Amino acid sequence: MNIETFKYDNRIVRAFAIATVIWGIVGMLVGLLAAVELFYPGANLNFQFITFGRIRPLHTNAVIFAFVGNGMFMGIYYSLQRLCKARMFSDFLSWFNFWGWQSIIVAAAITLPMGFTTSKEYAELEWPIKIAIAIVWVAFAVNLFGTIAKRREKHMYVAIWFYISTAITITVLHVTNSMTMPAGWFKSYSMYAGVQDALVQWWYGHNAVAFFLTTPYLGLMYYFLPKAANRPIFSYRLSIIHFWALVFLYIWAGPHHLLYSALPDWAQSLGMVFSLMLIAPSWGGMLNGLLTLRGAWDKVRQDPVLKFMVAAVTAYGMATIEGPLMSIKTVNSLSHYTDWTIAHAHGGALGWNGFLTFSVLYYVFPRLYKTSLWSTKLANYHFWLGLLGIIFYIVPIYVAGITEGLMWKQFNKDGFLQYPNFLESIIQVVPMFRLRSIGGTLYLIGVFMMAYNLYRTAKAGQFEPDTEAQAPALEKVEAPHGKLAFHRLLEGKPLFFTALAVVAILVGGMVEIIPIFLIKENVPTIANVKPYTPLQVLGRDIYIREGCLGCHSQMIRPFRSETERYGEYSKAGEYVYDHPFLWGSERKGPDLAREGGRYPAAWHFNHLDDPRSTSPGSIMPRYSWLLTQKLDRESLPARLAALRRVGVPYPDGFENGPAQKDLDAEAAKIVADLKQGAVTCEPDREIVALIAYLQRLGTDIRSAPVAAQ
Amino acid sequence: MSVVILLILASLAVGLVFVGAFVWSVRSGQYEDTLTPSLRVLLDDPTPRIHSQPAGRTAAPGPVAENKPRRGKNIATNRESQDEPII
């Protein structure tokens, strides 16, 4: 037997572990600020870069991709080496992965507050950063597969399969959803329009939750839970079924984010059915984790690592039964657009991802530093404080969500809306928003306690950069069906660049193919629906920049309670020029799909300048900088050209002259409208463009019957 | 809704990759043993055996068992530290 000696790379694990703690604190602090702004809109100090619409995507990106992302890499780099009995495939790729990922996070932290966003949830970063993500991700995937190829353990433990599914699926999802047409360095338009864009986005969005927040963490659970409890997983067979069932079911469930929208009904039903099927593998996995501890609950009482894990796995079970239930159309009709969704997401994020990350940190740090945890007591306090924080966070938000859903739907006995003013529902739940921020604060204090505990642990111990290990070499004979040659190929150095080339070809192919069969589709099915005017295009881009869709949907569902409140329900044909779609996913303010003409221009002006002057009690932030900032006309030609390239039928040469004239004329008209409301404003201000866009919303179809007669 | 074709193709492509992986894993004998992998993972600690194994429960036969976790010591220290009263 040929015993080989090798070294596990601990430095990379430590680097990701430290990044996890730092970005976790940053992401949660941003979340706390966003939470405070929801009951105290002045908390942004009238500073545009930290206004809710801009920091909401910053918060979601930071906790998903920075906190959980680094946590995932930490866990994978630690466990994969030990499961494969091999050092990582390439130290260069490990560090490329680390520094690439941190640079992307920093780029996100700079560009999102500046308003550079595609507006597509969890995919907000603009196209240069998207390309960087693809490159770094491929580096990670190559490193992962390279390590698996040179493993010294024939059997691939189930955790490795979960990691593989993450690497493959996220690549495909990211590339498919990132198809955008650049209009300058920090602006791009989705190649898909309207309902198609919505479908691609939520196919991505749902599977990002599935394959970024769930499968890698299940892999971590299957490794770290048995290790921490020092007993094998309850049923290894069940874990194999869990994996295969999950990967085959998850990818079809995306449309459940678009129930009762303008998406075709069959697609909605498909998403709902697959979501319900997901209960089986998810709960199989949860029970597998919890039953591992049968007869070992005394350890749970002692060990904070296990405490966090038990709570995390329980939260996974809760989230994966709630998610399918919310995918049932009747439930969704109440829960969608409300804070219920936020509660669901945070139950999963704070409970499952957060707590599992903490447990892995508490597990890994003492081992990296060859010591025991500095204070078990402090870790236990962290656990209870964190648990209390979760409860204080999600319970008020559940109450808020159900309150909102019921108030929006309530009719009085005469058949009119009981609460015709949307604001009533928000004023009702503001106390819940306050309570929620207390919960978040408790959770964050716990994270600070953990950071201190880990710091003291590191100080007390001696860091071991490389752990020496021994294992017999894997006999090459056992790779049948040409696998041997495949492994050889994998071991080749140019693998990284080959993989990059494949992704590049994938991207190039899609750029070629997508417009061909999408543009044909974009022939309007509703004759009245026309492309946005140049001023409206710029206004729409301001709407995107300010993150208005974080609180305002543009999709009226076909319920009487919605059509009474907002007007005719939304049709797929109305969105054919929407690159990207702006349906939104939550309502902290009313739906804006039919906002055009509802109020005079001057009302919008005053409302944007100070929402509480027109709507007392409103929680919308002031947008006073729109009154002073000048409209960016320079970029108009590039923007119109990019939109034409993705299929919006602007005539050739429109952007060189006619568009500018059109813009001036429309701006003058808005200024005249404002004057009627006793408001004076220069025509070259951003607010003029935004008002032009808002006054256009949903008016095409309203004018339809008139035009037909 | 032609984008549905693209998404179905992409989803099927991912699905087919996993079908291939599944077929490979079954045919190459990955799942011939569904018991010991769960035990061996507990022994993944690398450095050669220094201390005697505390309990036979996690022992696996063969060369792997020879790579007895040296964390035997660490686990022991952890246990000690955890014997302190909690909260």
Shape category of chain B: elongated
- The CA-CA distance between the termini of chain B, in Å, is 58 Å
Which value, in Å, is the CA radius of gyration of chain B? 22 Å
Beta-strand proportion of chain A: under 5%
Topology of this protein?
The complex is a heterodimer of chains A (709) and B (87).
Chain A: E1 3-9, H1 11-37, H2 52-84, H3 91-114, H4 127-149, H5 158-177, E2 180-182, E3 188-190, H6 194-229, H7 236-250, H8 265-277, H9 279-291, H10 297-302, H11 304-326, H12 329-335, H13 339-368, H14 376-409, H15 422-460, E4 466-472, H16 483-491, H17 495-519, H18 534-545, H19 560-566, H20 601-609, H21 611-614, H22 625-628, H23 636-645, H24 658-676, H25 686-696, H26 699-702, H27 704-708
Antiparallel strand pairs in A: 1-4, 2-3
Chain B: H1 3-27, H2 36-40, H3 63-66, H4 71-82
How would you sum up this structure in a few lines?
The complex is a heterodimer of chains A (about 700) and B (about 90). By secondary structure, chain A is mainly alpha-helical. Chain A is built from 27 helices and 4 strands.
Describe the structure.
Chain A is mainly α and 709 residues long. Chain A folds into four domains: 1-156; 160-285 and 485-523, no CATH class; 293-474, Cytochrome C Oxidase, Chain A, CATH 1.20.210; 534-696, Cytochrome Bc1 Complex, Chain D, domain 2 (Orthogonal Bundle). In chain A, 65% of the residues lie in helices and 3% in strands. Chain A has 27 helices and four strands. Chain A has helices spanning 11-37, 52-84, 91-114, 127-149, 158-177, 194-229, 236-250, 265-277, 279-291, 297-302, 304-326, 329-335, 339-368, 376-409, 422-460, 483-491, 495-519, 534-545, 560-566, 601-609, 611-614, 625-628, 636-645, 658-676, 686-696, 699-702, 704-708, and strands at 3-9, 180-182, 188-190, 466-472. In chain A, the strands form two sheets. Chain A has a two-stranded antiparallel ribbon with strand order 1-4. A two-stranded antiparallel sheet of chain A has the order 2-3. With 87 residues, chain B is mostly helical. In chain B, 53% of the residues lie in helices and 0% in strands. Chain B has helices at residues 3-27, 36-40, 63-66, 71-82. Chain B starts with a helix and ends in a 5-residue tail after the last helix. The relative contact order of chain B is 0.10. The interface between A and B is large, with 73 and 53 residues.
